[in-house]
Amino acid sequence: MPRRTKIVATLGPVTSTPEQLESILRAGVDVARINFSHGTAEEHIANVARFRAAADRVGKIAGVMADLPGPKLRVKMATARELAPGETVTFSLSHEPRHPDDLILTEPEILADVRPGQRMLLDDGRLQLEATSVGGGELKAMVVVGGTLKPNKGLNLPDTPLTIATITPRDRVALDVAARAGVDWVAVSFVRGPEAAADVRAACAAVGLKVPVLAKIERPEAVSRAKAIVAAFDAIMVARGDLGVEIPLERVPTVQKMLIAEARAAGKPVITATDMLDSMRENPRPTRAEASDVANAIFDGTDAVMLSGETAVGEYPVEAVKCMHRIAVETESHVHSSGAVAGTGYFHPEAGIDDPLTLGVCDLARDIGAAAIVTPTLSGRMARLIVRHRPKAQVVAVAPTDAIVRGLAMVWGIAGVRMSPTAPGTDRLAAAVQDAYRAGAVTAGELLVLVGGHPIEGGPHCPTVRIVRVGSGGESGEP
Predict the structure, then answer these.
(1) Which residue from 211, 209, 212, 229 is spatially nearest to 220, judged by alpha carbons?
(2) For 357-374, what is each residue's pLDDT tens digit?
(3) Pairing relation of β-strands 104-105 and 73-76?
(4) Total tally of structural domains belonging to the chain
(5) Do 246 and 218 touch, CB atoms closer than 8 A?
């Protein structure tokens, strides 16, 4: 049985050559993440082009996600600096230092929101400060837990409600580059509410980019407004790195389960990210805890699992992808053999026909032993609603554009196929079987369940379910 959980891999220096890109694609990568917090415009455009070319050579449909920097505070330093407990540290509220030892941030205006007594966490919480005063163009803070502060490390403000705009000037520059590169998804950092979706889509439209947008859940405000954020965006990411600093660490596992359940209920894809196989940056094997972490995210019902530094700067990028693939296959095998459904308890049927239709299709495919569920889809929505139920049968989505097909590469259990042009009056269900057959997604003799909202090209919305057996030339025959 093919792997259903998708693998997202961050590209970086160790995955920048055509040979390396082909290797990680063959190992199982479905989506490449381009981290716009690092690198130049030229590097990003070249990386996307090389990844596209490698996917073509491998013969694999793979997506590209642009991950915007967002209002992520980073310390701009030339060299490392020791911070001792009890020491007072001064941050400039502008991009220029007032004093020689002032610390400068990438987005210094955010510090105006900080109030005395609030925590300031550096380097993922390894160093802890407490704000003591703000004014006169500077913020002073006392070091509570000291250590070595290295250049470009992040600053988190878990106690501070932020008022900065969703899309920063750096994000707008990144979006222009993403549009030139031709990405398939845009991920937005530090989303705080559902209203951000409209801002992101407007910023994308301003540079001619029309792609689905993903909200990274990293702030306490986002957790409390998760349902509305899921409804407003096209997907979410459980970004456990900053999330684990912004909220108490012990809450992260339960918040992860809640976020995955909310996305599943809405038929929106969800990525689980950060530190999944982090030890493989330096070791050829992960820890047992990391293997269990990946498996548990799949048991929770995540659509995709993500590799970050493991494939961007690690010593074993291909091995990390292969290992994640093996863990996913083993976990999914257990889920299906036990008769369980990943993320059980997530689903609450809503009024209308979509929920009973898609659930019925999955039950039908299981009961008759169908090899696949094939659906022609103009946007990918029907396929996404079907895979919420985690059917054992492969879901083949036949879509009209490369962009939609690549966008579905991030969604659990969907094999995307390009739709051939059809004339008015064409039986779109039969045409979808032909397209799936030509693409190798189904084979002669297999039993299929077909479902379509518009079964006749140019005809009315008339949801239809059909059972067929694939003929020797890809035609739809009697079951």
Answers:
(1) 229
(2) 999 999 999 999 999 999
(3) antiparallel
(4) 3
(5) yes
Q: Residue 59: CA atoms inside 13 Å, Cβ hemisphere, count?
A: 3
Is 216 part of the annotated catalytic residue set?
Answer: yes
H or E element in which residue 31 lies: strand 31-35
Answer yes or no: do 199 and 328 share one domain.
yes
User: Is there a single domain that holds both residue 193 and residue 172?
Assistant: yes
Q: Which of 216, 264, 392, 428 is catalytic?
A: 216
How many angstroms separate the CA atoms of 430 and 475, rounded?
7
Is the full-model pTM beyond 0.85? yes
Q: What angle do CA 352, 354, 359 make, to 5 degrees?
A: 120
Catalytic residue flag (residue 74): yes
Given 5, 15, 106, 274, the catalytic residue = 274
List the beta strands (DSSP E) in 275-400.
304-307, 372-376, 394-399
Asked whether residue 346 is domain-assigned, the answer is no
Model confidence over 110-135: pLDDT tens digits? 899 999 999 999 998 999 999 999 99
Catalytic residue, candidates 33, 257, 268, 428: 33
The band of 9, judged by pLDDT with boundaries at 50, 70 and 90, is: very high
Please state, rounded to an integer, the average pLDDT across all residues of the chain. Answer: 94
Q: Supply the DSSP symbol for 234.
A: S
Residue 339 region, left (φ>0) first, then alpha (ψ -120 to 50), else beta? left
Tell me which DSSP letter residue 353 carries: S
What is the tens place of the pLDDT at every residue in 204-250? 999 999 999 999 999 999 999 999 999 999 999 999 999 999 999 99
Contact 96, 153 (CB under 8 A): no
Rounded to 5 degrees, what angle do the CA atoms 278, 281, 287 make? Answer: 50
The answer to whether the beta carbons of residues 118 and 131 sit under 8 Å apart is yes
Instruction: Supply the range of the domain harboring residue 325.
Output: 6-71+165-338
CATH code assigned at 415: 3.40.1380.20
Tell me the C-alpha distance between 111 and 108, whole Å: 6
Domain holding 30: CATH number?
3.20.20.60
Burial of 33 (0-12, 13-18, 19+ CB in 10 A): buried
- pLDDT attached to residue 344: 47
What's the rounded mean pLDDT across residues 392-413? 96
> Is 473 buried (19+), middle (13-18) or exposed (0-12) by CB count in 10 A?
exposed
